[in-house]
Amino acid sequence: MHRLAMGRRLASAVATASLVGALGVAGAVPALAAAPAPLSFTIDYTKNTSIPQTPHLGGGFAGNGPVLDASGKQIGRTFDTCGIDGIESPSKMDADCGAYVIFNNGDELNLSTQAVIDANPFDYPYTFKAVVEGGTGAYDGAQGEAKVTAERPGVYKVDVHFK
To answer: What is the Cα–Cα distance from 156 to 65, expressed in whole angstroms?
Structure first.
């Protein structure tokens, strides 16, 4: 009987030690960082962007311009590259684009989209979505979605929601 009780105590001690060890390991896992707060800004590509006069399949364009807050203050710059992978009409093209927003504090936010780009000012405003692909600083590892509103040719309001 003494051996049976000793065996049970030993098994219980091993089980308790295993549980404590497992909880200790689980407790050592770093907590996930909180998602950044939603973010809104306007990108103005009308300053230095060169869009081809006649879009053609396989062509591309790149641009850069200021990033502005709601009051119109410049809070950063953006750089984008787009490849044209479809032509909808003489004024509309499908483009696969990547945009990199570099804020004045040095943090970077990376966005990408497959969207219709429209050069006809009578078709504005229109919206499309973009994917948050991380960044640096506050946006390191960030994920989420952006609603992009093309307000007029070359000017986009961006509302970002992080996961």
So the answer is: 11
Residues present in the chain in total: 163
- Is the CB of residue 50 less than 8 Å from the CB of residue 153? no
Return the closest-CA partner of residue 36 out of 101, 117, 118, 94.
101
Is residue 105 left, alpha or beta, with left meaning phi > 0 and alpha meaning psi from -120 to 50?
alpha
Whether 64 and 44 have beta carbons less than 8 Å apart is answered as: no
Q: What angle do CA 131, 67, 40 make, to 5 degrees?
A: 55
User: How far is CA 145 from each of CA 39, 65, 158, 161, rounded to the nearest angstrom?
Assistant: 11, 21, 10, 6
DSSP state of 15: H
Find all residues with CB under 8 Å of 145, minimum gap 6, and list them. Answer: 129, 130, 131, 132, 160, 161
pTM above 0.85, yes or no: no
Query: What tens digit of pLDDT does each residue of 2-45 get?
Result: 444 444 444 444 444 443 444 344 444 445 568 899 999 999 98
